[in-house]
Amino acid sequence: MAATLLVASFVVFGALYLAPGNPASFLLAGRSASPEALAAINAQYHLDDPFLVRYLRWLGDVLHGDFGRSITYRTDVSRLLADRLPTTLVLIAMSLVVVVAVGLLLGRIAAVRGGATDSAILVTTTFAVGTPSFVAAVLLQGVFAVDLGWFPSSGTGEGGFGDLVRHLVLPSVALALYLIGMLARVTRSAMLEALDSEHVTVARSRGVPERQVVRRHVFRNSLGTVLTTGGLIVSTLLVCTILVETAFSVGGIGQLLELSTTTKDFPTVQAISLIIVALFMTVNLLVDLALPLVDPRVTLGSRRAAA
């Protein structure tokens, strides 16, 4: 992880410098400036230093928790992140709960019941998978916010945590819709494969109740595949939150990243991008560590391969 984060930090820092424009032009807001004023701006933000020198200085500051100063907001990036990151984490947590609860339920029902129920769920999940997050956001806003007036159409509210959750209901559903369809399909496929396995046939022949067969022998043996998909789901949530937060005007790091990219706010974009990469890697590490606990065959297979 340390080596990967180091490479990622270099890519994150260097990628923005490949784009046209520079922070100085934004700071000047189209006004002409004397060479002395331009030199002062470049000196303040170290824009004239060699690329490798800027990168090493930035990396050293990041290791000490200093992400620099925002060019757009004229404040420390760490303060911006502290104000906005909790909102994004709440949004992702709500979306994850919806994805896991609905996706697992639909996948399990489709695999166990089959027939018309399975076909209906497949059609529904196909629609969900084919609906991008920003399209879902527009539809949900139009129906549940504008027409029915059940939920707010934008913002995060000012009435505490309960009001924040109410404002994030529609964004969380828009963020979760695509992933519900994906998880339901993965769960269905994994359970259908487990239903055809030998040990399930033996359990049924011994007279074990079907409910217990599904719970102990089918669903449990499918959790390894589902957990692996869970890492991809969380990673997708981290990325798609940018579109959803922008559509619903949610003041999280996703919207901040979009605004900072538009204004060439290098320090803010670099900090958020690095945080997303770190969260992505952390989630995948946790999935790798949890997988042997869910499916002991992973550990046994590794030992046999080593032997």
Automatic annotation (TrEMBL):
SUPFAM superfamilies: MetI-like. It comes from the Bacteria. Keywords: Cell membrane, Membrane, Transmembrane, Transmembrane helix, Transport. One of its GO terms (molecular function) is dipeptide transmembrane transporter activity. Residues 85-287 form the ABC transmembrane type-1 domain. The chain crosses the membrane at residues 88-107, 119-144, 164-184, 225-251, 271-294. It is found in: Cell membrane. PANTHER family: DIPEPTIDE TRANSPORT SYSTEM PERMEASE PROTEIN DPPB-RELATED (PTHR43163:SF6). This is ABC transporter permease. It comes from Streptomyces katrae.
